[in-house]
Amino acid sequence: MPIVTSTELFKKAYDGGYAIGAFNINNMEIVQGITDAAAELKSPVILQASQGARKYANSVYLVKLVEAASELHPELPIVLHLDHGADFETCKDCIDNGFTSVMIDYSGHPFAENIEVSRKVAEYAHAHGVVVEAELGTLAGQEDAVSVEADKAFYTHPEEVEEFVEKTGVDSLAIAIGTSHGAYKFKPGTKPQLRLDILDEVAKRLPGFPIVLHGSSSVPQEYVKIINENGGKLVDAIGVPEDQLREAARRAVCKINIDSDLRLGMTAGIRKHFVEHPDHFDPRQYLGDGRANVKAIVEHKIKDVLGSDNKI
Predict the structure, then answer these.
(1) Mind giving me the DSSP string for 237-253?
(2) Which segments within 96-236 are labelled E, that is strand?
(3) Which residue numbers are catalytic?
(4) Fewer CB within 10 Å of terminal CB in the chain, N or C?
């Protein structure tokens, strides 16, 4: 199966009360771990590349890796998505070079500018058979090039969503309801709580329209523990409760972004391997352990959080 757009996948997810995992990719092992898990569980999947990933690996490598995964798993619907495209030029470059979906993130700009740039991206993307995600509201936290202080973040205003979608023509909308980028999402001692009331109001105003959640890693403490026991120093790393993400997936959320959890799993596997095998120096050995953790994390997300297993 060639790399696909998310249009039909989102329609099925919305109607079926589940979400599709959008997992960030940076190298071959991460692509392999994600797609092997998705193929075994018969789950559609979105592989997304951030600005940092494109700078690190080069877009050409990332596109070819995803194409290879699609060739190896011909039954698996795979979307190749640009995560947090900063401007029209970045989105255009990805559209012109094999991506089937792009996100234009102009959420940090005034509402009118966000509309103007998002519409420009949507017009170009649609002319080339590519779908577009945009964002209203701003998430706190840090991940790659995205960095927002907590006091600069703000929830999505539901009263803006209809005008925004109508004037831009985008295909999905990322909203801010309390998720946060990175592994240090919340202050210690706090109980993270998603604003599902905002989600429901947005869904009421945009019936049938696919909603996206960014910053949705749960920061599994078993991997934090492994990292810290093997030379790491992650203090107060806290994520989004998975039960709340599952509830969001039952509603209007069709795409849930997960990045930090994969990084934690990869790092935990590598750190543990180095401590247990100090004589090893073959990257295939320690990267293989990291890849196994990535696969296990994705399997768990698909079955227990997203609900997207057995959907192909």
Answers:
(1) -B---HHHHHHHHHTTE
(2) 101-104, 131-136, 140-143, 146-148, 172-175, 180-181, 211-213
(3) 83
(4) N
